[in-house]
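Morning, I've got a small favour to ask if you have a moment. I've dropped the whole record in just underneath, so have a look.
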Amino acid sequence: MTKYKSLIKLDNKDEIVSILNQQLADTFDLYSQLKQAHWNVKGMQFYALHQLFDTLAAEVSEYVDMIAERATTLGGVAKGTVRMAAKTSRLPVSPDTFDNSEFTVKKLVERYALVTESTRIAIDSTNSLGDKATSALFTEVSRGLDKGLWFLESHLF
């Protein structure tokens, strides 16, 4: 039986997979916090925010899948369970209570900004490691996160 190896030849695969898994943890945590906010938001803008949070969570879920699949494409293991993400996520823990819609949006803006910033760092890191494809993936994720952050921040003005 012949064992096939990844056709992608990169000297720094392990380091790139590590970057992917860190972004996977952060992005998956962002997804779960969006769903938590979706379920618990309260206030005058309840309905609009309830829908917005669900839309944003669906978009972030796609990024989670893209990041995880890239890790496995490179021959790594995507560390994408809830427990794995909880161990390594750099995001603050979701609030226990959601006092009002403004509070909820501010907390999500904070978390979106963190993931957006770390995604930009991942773009540069993977590019400098010679993986333009992963860098391009993170660029695509970054564009989507920028848009989501803009949608959220627009509720605070």
In short: Helices lie at 13-40, 46-73, 82-88, 101-128, 132-153.
